[in-house]
Specification:
This protein has two helices and three strands, in the order E-E-H-E-H. A hairpin with an 8-residue loop joins strand 1 and strand 2. The chain is elongated.
């Protein structure tokens, strides 16, 4: 289901100590990145506890939380993320290449779609 939501308890970042309702995909990503947990998950007695994070893992988790929070803020403010063109799209201009700036038609003339082209 595309509109499925879940709750997460945030451990790191600007939303630390808050319980958020997010999409299921965001919840899974946050839990897998170690910056949030499922508040309804109860550790079973036979389940091993989660090993502590290393400094590198903790830093990566904090950066992931910051990135996610900034993306949410930008979306709420209507700021569009800068999209880079896909690889191979467009043509890079060479430094010594000049563009042709001459108009297609002389000044004062404009060909509309309804006019027929003169051959």
């Amino acid at each position: 289901m595309a509109d499925e939501t879940r709750q997460i308890q945030v451990l790191l970042g600007p939303y630390r100590d808050h319980r958020l309702t997010v999409s299921a995909a965001d919840a899974d990503a946050a839990i897998n990145a170690h910056w949030a947990v499922d508040p309804f998950h109860v550790d079973a007695p036979d389940e091993e506890p989660h090993p502590p994070l290393t400094d590198e893992e903790r830093t990566a988790a904090f950066e992931a939380a910051q990135t996610w929070a900034q993306a949410q803020w930008d979306a709420a403010q209507g700021v569009a993320a800068a999209k880079e063109p896909p690889a191979g799209q467009g043509r890079a201009k060479k430094p010594d290449e000049k563009r042709d700036m001459a108009p297609e038609e002389p000044a004062g003339r404009y060909t509309t779609r309804s006019q027929q082209q003169k051959l």
